[in-house]
Amino acid sequence: MKSGLLPDCMRDQRQPISVLRLGHRRERDKRITSHLGLTARAFGANEVILAGEEDPSALETWNSVTERFGGEFKCHYEPKPLGWLRRFSQDAGDGKAGVIIHLTMYGEHWHHAIEKIDRNRPTVIVVGGTKVPGEVYKLATHNVSVGNQPHSEVSALGIFLDSFVGPIDDVSHFSGGEIRVLPSASGKHVLNLEEE
């Protein structure tokens, strides 16, 4: 499947996608975790779940961006992510197993894996920070790599979501915000919807 070529009918009816950020370290990972959540939101995930050290500032950032730029994006802190993943692997809320995609440089290349992923089930994409527990590799429905060289987890999530979700229509997907950026080849064009 080529990047971004998901049929409209599949995009409109797709199941929820969560991103689970494992191993967050409040001081060391503040910026990268913030960007991970913003990337999840911008590329079509429905929520981000923060695990590791509790960090209200990350949740505040994601909520503030959603309020200003629109959309229905949720975030929360999960103190016991492995227990949460175990439950999700058995029951994604309807008595059936959810799909767990673990982004790791040790996984199967995303070009090959993406066609095998069930899009009809709620999905969580696991993105590690510090050393990922071995159990995550076993719980994962798919261990997927964007590349087998060291790289940013933010770039891996963006590339994967762009291919898995497809293009996002900013106007319909991010409705209800205070600000809308109007694409332009030159200059900045921003529409302040609060003033209208």
Provide a quick synopsis of the model.
With about 200 residues, the protein is of the alpha/beta class.
Layout of strands and helices, then pairs:
Layout: H1 8-12, E1 17-24, H2 30-42, E2 47-52, H3 56-69, E3 74-77, H4 81-90, E4 99-109, H5 110-113, E5 123-127, H6 134-139, E6 142-145, H7 153-165, H8 170-173, E7 179-181, E8 190-192
Parallel strand pairs: 1-2, 1-5, 2-3, 4-5, 4-6
Antiparallel strand pairs: 7-8
Helix pairs in contact: 2-3, 2-7
Describe it for me?
The chain has helices spanning 8-12, 30-42, 56-69, 81-90, 110-113, 134-139, 153-165, 170-173; strands spanning 17-24, 47-52, 74-77, 99-109, 123-127, 142-145, 179-181, 190-192. The chain has 196 residues and is of the alpha/beta class. The chain has one domain: SPOUT methyltransferase, trefoil knot domain (Alpha/beta knot, 3-Layer(aba) Sandwich), CATH 3.40.1280.10. It has a six-stranded parallel sheet with strand order 3-2-1-5-4-6, with helices on both faces. A two-stranded antiparallel ribbon has the order 7-8. Helix 3 (56-69) links the parallel strand 2 and strand 3 (74-77). The longest helix has 14 residues, at 56-69. Mean pLDDT is 89; it is low at 1-12.
Search tags:
8 helices, 196 residues, 22% strand, six-stranded parallel β-sheet, disordered N terminus, globular, 8 strands, alpha/beta, Alpha/beta knot
The CATH C-level class name: Alpha Beta
Beta content: 15-25%
What summary fits the major beta sheet? 6 strands, parallel
Count the domains.
1
What would you give as the CATH superfamily?
A: SPOUT methyltransferase, trefoil knot domain
**Uncertain runs with pLDDT below 50, 5 residues or more?**
1-12
CATH 2nd-level architecture: 3-Layer(aba) Sandwich
